[in-house]
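Troubleshooting entry. Yesterday's outputs looked truncated, so today I'm pasting the complete records for two proteins to confirm everything comes through intact. If either block looks cut off, that's the bug. Protein one:
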Amino acid sequence: MRIGIVTPFAPEIFTASLQPKDLCAAALPSVQSLIHSFLKNGHFVRVFTYTAINKTYKTPNLEVYSTTAGLNDFKMQMLGIAPLFRLRSLVAKNSSDLDILHAQWSYETAIAAMSQSHRIPVFHTIRDWAPFIYDFMPEGRDKKYWFIRKLMAKKVLSSHDIHTIANSKYTHDLIQKYYGYDAPIIPNSVKDDYILKTERKAPEGCNILCVTTNFDKRKNVGMLIEAFAEFRKQKPEAQLTVITKYSDEPTVEAWSAAGLLQNVRILVHIDHLQLMNYYDQASFFVTPSREETFGNTVIESLSRQVPVIGGWTSGAISWVLGNGRYGYLCDVDSRESLLQAMLHVCDHPDEARQKTLEGYEHVKEDFSEQAIYTKHIELYQKYVRR
């Protein structure tokens, strides 16, 4: 099958030293895994993206077409006009030989892909819920940006020209509630390379890990920082590592001034493959996020046999954790609830290990590259015009 993927990418994909099989390494892990699975199973993939440069990369089974996004023009970026129109033109000129188009996210990528729905089947995977994110944004630039994203998502999710895929039961239920239709659920996957092949030996000490995108109110890392300060009163040897994609010096300085960062290290933009080392060093993993449409860090943790703590009402987190079967659930808006969950995991290692091993088998069976690949191909085949 000849598959087109319309997705945000990073300019590092054009580094000359990258091999074709590594070319997707700059994408979001779930998208990287999906593209990798298509290539591994013998399909042709053409990626359409926008970056800071115009560039085309071609190999026999993988091509990447990029256009500039107009990132230096704030007004154009804010409205989504520059990336949308340029991406739509790029897709229109280079998709005539494809069997399907699949956009990642519900914004300019999906609208650009929709322009070809008169010729080929077009899909999109919803990977976040814009109205929820918008509500968490403070007034100003980010609020305006997410207002535009809300409008884009509404256009896409209301359209009959595109087939929507939910990445969890949580997003499925939101689509059904607000748009009235039953979207198929195809979860995110974890790369095969991430899944531990042998039994894990738990590390010495008490090492807690959190991996997050940023420190905004939705990600709720501040609550974990506060809970950990209390945790250390009972477990003074404990260490907390927080890995974030984006730095936020004012927030970190505020935590430091409040005396909350003793035995805490904050690392910025660790390469995704290197994250495995941090998972392997962790006694358990905590995701304090108030809302996630999936939670890739959860399945990454379980794939490395690391116990997980997440929120009961944090979007898809409880669904991914089997409502507590594969990990621990608490009220992430409560410092005391987070504290008690961390103490329980630390004090009940055998129970935590049993849950985690069940979660590990769950990930291998239901979230592996091959399992998610099969679900995609089966869905595509229902719509491919023969």
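Protein two, checking that the full record survives here as well:
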Amino acid sequence: MRDTAICPNCGAEQKGLNLNETKGSVVCYSCDTKFEVDINEQTSNYQNKNYETAE
């Protein structure tokens, strides 16, 4: 199953993610911000945890 996440920095929609494979880690396609998505959340609105912002 592919997932979608929203970048907490620029708001870009990240589609086609396999969050189980990456354990919730995502790098934004647009701004290179690294963030984590709570993969235990069962709704389509994921809660993103921004842990590093690209400069």
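Both blocks look complete. Sanity check on protein two: The helical segments are 19-22.
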